[in-house]
Design goal:
The chain has 418 residues and is an alpha+beta fold. The protein has seven helices and 25 strands. The longest helix is centred in the last third of the chain and has 55 residues. The N and C termini lie far apart (118 Å).
Length: 418
């Protein structure tokens, strides 16, 4: 039995997982009992997300990729989803998730080889992939996934690269954030509290709460004299709708994230309001041919900064795992020519700043080291005190013996005089 499936591409996880039981929000599923090639490896798998969770079991099967349709396929680990909650999305038309993160975050353990790792080994392709997310094209999501290389027709201008700070998620380091030309002027560690990752499986741009609040304050200040926006819109609780899609784009400033390329070079990702104001599908009741609605897609986060799909849709992004770096180019998506402004890459330019000074170091690691040091010193102190007590006891015992000996000798002398 074989079946073609549609998969959500997720750079924020590492498992290739397929629906293996019916669900109201999907049109089809893979019936494991009908397969002669699936091997059950006997491990339960559970993967939680910011919203939603799925559970199932880990197996192996033959997987074919459309780009390599003439091949016989590869042997890959596959998680078969048997139950889920708030995971599959109605109308999304996908019944699987392709995790492209590093094996460090694979479930149930880092010994589980992800599909892309298997593809690199068995098909002998380069350890590089690239994403071209274009957002809504009519009522469908559009874009491309290039496995094993780069397609320069999908971007304009040069590709500019930044280093991957840590290989688990695709963790990077932000050094500054601007609203228009105004810096947030915060300690750059706050931008990366407690990490910054590039995650195509998350829709919004998520930011630590203090950073989010500062951004909203600046946005409100910049647009208040040009267009009325209710408070609930900034909280993503209310949509803004314009007749004939006549949104006043010029009233909304860009959001810029700065990254260090090297010690003295930086680049900017200048994010257009066309990206952080997300056009909604026509399921919304206020959406009519004359009424187009948008949602504010920057939100607070307790789990660090997540550069999600709304930002990624403005760029062609190369995940160069060979050189441990990410490349960004201005997108060549279908609708950019109709936009008044587009997201773009600026730089590189000279800026002397060490990105390592912006890395958030978890306090608990320092606390654990302090506990270890305290315990070690405490143990040493206890040993020293114990040794001192033993020495005192020994000293007192020797004194007693000497006194007793002197007393016995004195008694003998007295007996002799008698």
């Amino acid at each position: 039995m074989h079946m073609w499936i549609d998969a959500l591409v997720d750079t924020g996880s590492s498992n290739f997982a397929v629906a293996a039981s019916p669900h109201k929000n999907i049109e089809k599923f893979f019936n494991v009992s009908m397969s002669e090639t699936v091997i059950n490896l006997g491990f339960e798998v559970s993967v939680p997300y910011t919203q939603g969770i799925w559970k199932g079991f880990l197996g192996q099967d033959i997987v074919k990729i459309p780009s390599y349709e003439n091949s016989s396929g590869i042997i890959s680990n596959v998680a078969f989803i048997t139950e889920s909650e708030q995971f599959f999305i109605n109308g999304s038309h996908w019944e699987a998730i392709l995790g492209l993160g590093y094996r460090e975050i694979a479930k149930p353990s880092s010994s589980t080889e992800p599909l892309f790792d298997s593809l690199v080994k068995q098909m002998n392709i380069r350890n590089i992939f690239s994403l071209h997310l274009c957002g809504l094209n009519g009522s469908e999501m559009a874009g491309s996934l290039i496995l094993g290389g780069v397609d320069h027709s999908l971007h304009t201008g040069a590709l500019e690269y930044i280093p991957i700070y840590k290989e688990w998620y695709y963790e990077v380091v932000i050094t500054d954030i601007y609203i228009g030309e105004t810096s947030l002027e915060m300690d750059c560690k706050e931008y990366n509290f407690d990490k910054t990752i590039v995650d195509s499986g998350t829709t919004n741009l998520l930011l630590p709460t203090r950073v989010y609040n500062r951004i909203v304050d600046l946005l409100v200040e910049k647009v208040k004299n040009m267009v009325f926006i209710p408070k609930k819109f900034w909280e993503s609780l209310e949509l803004l709708c314009w007749k004939n899609d006549k949104i006043p784009w010029e009233s909304f400033p860009s959001v810029t994230m700065t990254f260090s390329v090297s010690y003295n070079l930086s680049i900017d990702l200048v994010i257009s309001p066309h990206n952080y104001l997300r056009k909604m599908k026509n399921e919304d009741t206020r959406f009519t041919p004359e009424n187009v609605c948008y949602k504010f897609s920057i939100a607070p986060s307790d789990l660090g900064t997540v550069v999600g799909a709304v930002v990624m849709e403005g760029f062609y992004i190369v995940f160069d795992r060979e050189a441990s770096k990410l490349g960004f180019g201005t997108t060549a998506c279908h609708d950019t020519i109709n936009r008044g402004s587009v997201s773009f890459v600026r730089g590189p330019y000279y800026k002397e700043q060490n990105a390592l000074n912006c890395v958030y170091t978890k306090l608990e690691s320092h606390f654990n080291m302090l506990l270890i040091a305290t315990a070690t010193m405490g143990t040493v102190c206890v040993l020293c005190i114990t040794l001192l007590i033993l020495l005192v006891i020994r000293f007192q015992a020797l004194r007693f013996c000497l006194r007793q000996q002197e007393h016995d000798q004195f008694s003998l002398l007295n007996e002799a005089h008698k």
